[in-house]
């Protein structure tokens, strides 16, 4: 007899996004949802199911597992920054059951099939969540792109500005044309770090205080994103069959270009990040490099424009862009924002961060689930198995209390280097349990991972 596990609750978020009483039946041996019943079934009707396999969430929500489509796990090569073990534990603690790993910051980067194999070897046996991989586009690796598609990468990322690591140089327009020519007849996606540094961008002003966030913000103006997206949308017209994607949009000034491209029918998708929707430049203290990311966090008015774009569908989804480093590279003691590594650590916090802001705007859980689960799964090519509670899908479920409050402390964080701008915040929401393909992988802040084992697979 199949090993069944039954989930019941009064607020189960099914594929239409609306919480309702439901019963979700899982075959643990296959890891799939085998049936979903309206209403809460009685315990007596499942006499063959052990008590340990009867999960009653009561009034708490049962959500589909989150798909975080933008994560830097950095292993192999920079495992002291992050790694598969710590990064996926952090993900699971926040209800994330699948992450898609970015191709840079590991050594080697995911720019050839051999390098992808290196990364997969490093990951095996370490993953608490499922893990998929993006490939990378760098100058001269065009011949490796179709083999990477065949090897299973979910798409590709490139930089239009220096990435910050020597192993992953940025591309120019000629490089892009070559890559897009290779990829145009495939079903993959090309993702852009959309900042374009032109030779005329160099500042002629006197040096400013490197401990001021305003100094960093002035060094990465919105125009860099606007110029990049102008180039991307112009090239897109030459390769209209290839889906393109803008990662971590921060500049509201670029929204008209995105809206025009989408209105013209081009297959363009866009993500933004938790930090751009929850933080604002005016409130960043002096000498706090943990707030540095690229592109930068901008002003309140910009944040509100991003929320409007998210709500009207111009922006498709929300991701973490979890980009950690060792403490010494963050220059915490010096407070030197300008020379610090640019990246924000978020894994484990995203659902509660977004929910806290969404509630202020009377945005329901249906929209949050769409942005964090449905659209990210679609973007990463996982929509046939992840992101929704549906029969035949992976049984990735999260028991979550939307009304609890969670204070962000170092003890709560499960990623390797416990530096985050969110420390000290009181957030709405609490992940109580995370299940991956029907198996428990996280038991809440009190019990954590005690007695559990990593069961994540490589997608």
Automatic annotation (TrEMBL):
**Secretion signal, residue range per the UniProt entry:** none
Q: For this protein, what is the EC number?
A: 3.5.2.5
Required cofactor(s): Zn(2+)
| One of the GO BP terms on file | purine nucleobase catabolic process
Keyword annotations from UniProtKB, A to Z: Hydrolase, Metal-binding, Zinc
Oxidoreductase is among the record's keywords: no
Q: Which GO terms describe its molecular function?
A: allantoinase activity; cobalt ion binding; zinc ion binding
Q: In which pathway does it act?
A: Nitrogen metabolism; (S)-allantoin degradation; allantoate from (S)-allantoin: step 1/1
Domain of life, per UniProt, equals Eukaryota
Q: Which reaction does it catalyse?
A: (S)-allantoin + H2O = allantoate + H(+)
The Amidohydrolase-related domain covers 61-440
How it assembles, according to the record, is: Homotetramer.
What is this protein identified as? allantoinase
């Amino acid at each position: 007899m199949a090993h069944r596990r039954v989930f019941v609750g009064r607020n189960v978020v099914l594929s239409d996004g609306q919480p309702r009483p439901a019963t979700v039946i899982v075959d643990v041996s296959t890891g799939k949802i085998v049936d979903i019943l309206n209403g809460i079934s009685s315990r007596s009707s499942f006499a063959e199911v052990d008590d340990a396999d009867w999960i009653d969430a009561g009034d708490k929500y049962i959500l589909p597992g989150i798909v975080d489509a933008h994560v830097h796990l950095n292993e192999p090569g920079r495992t002291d920054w992050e790694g598969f073990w710590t990064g996926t534990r952090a993900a699971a603690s926040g209800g994330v059951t699948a992450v898609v790993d970015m191709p840079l910051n590991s050594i080697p980067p995911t720019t050839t099939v051999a390098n992808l194999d290196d990364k997969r070897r490093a990951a095996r046996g370490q993953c608490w969540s499922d893990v998929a991989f993006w490939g990378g586009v760098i100058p001269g690796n065009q011949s490796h792109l179709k083999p990477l598609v065949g090897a299973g990468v979910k798409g590709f990322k490139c930089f239009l500005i220096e990435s910050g690591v020597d192993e992953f140089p940025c591309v120019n327009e000629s490089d892009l044309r070559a890559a897009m020519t290779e990829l145009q007849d495939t079903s993959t996606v090309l993702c852009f770090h959309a900042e374009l540094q032109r030779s005329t961008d160099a500042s002629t002003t006197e040096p400013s205080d490197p401990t001021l966030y305003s100094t960093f913000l002035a060094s990465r103006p919105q125009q860099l994103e606007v110029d990049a997206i102008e180039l991307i949308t112009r090239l897109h017209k030459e390769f209209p069959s290839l889906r393109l994607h803008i990662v971590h949009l921060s500049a509201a000034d670029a929204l008209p270009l995105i809206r025009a491209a989408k209105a013209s029918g081009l297959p363009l998708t866009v993500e933004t990040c938790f930090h751009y929707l929850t933080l604002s430049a005016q409130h960043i203290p002096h000498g706090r490099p943990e707030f540095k990311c690229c592109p930068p966090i901008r002003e309140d008015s910009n944040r509100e424009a991003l929320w409007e774009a998210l709500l009207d569908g111009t922006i498709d989804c929300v991701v973490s862009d979890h980009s950690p480093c060792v403490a010494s590279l963050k220059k915490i003691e010096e407070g030197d924002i300008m020379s610090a590594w640019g990246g924000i650590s978020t894994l484990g916090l995203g659902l509660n961060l977004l929910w806290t802001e969404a509630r202020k705007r009377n945005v329901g859980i249906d929209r949050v689930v769409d942005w964090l689960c449905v659209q990210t799964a679609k973007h990463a090519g996982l929509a046939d198995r992840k992101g929704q509670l549906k029969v035949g899908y992976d049984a990735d479920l999260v028991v979550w209390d939307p009304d609890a409050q969670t204070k962000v402390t170092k003890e709560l964080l499960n990623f390797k280097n416990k530096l985050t701008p969110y420390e000290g915040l009181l957030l709405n929401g609490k992940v109580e349990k995370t299940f991956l393909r029907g198996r428990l992988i996280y038991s809440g802040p009190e019990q954590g991972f005690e007695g559990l084992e990593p069961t994540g697979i490589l997608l």
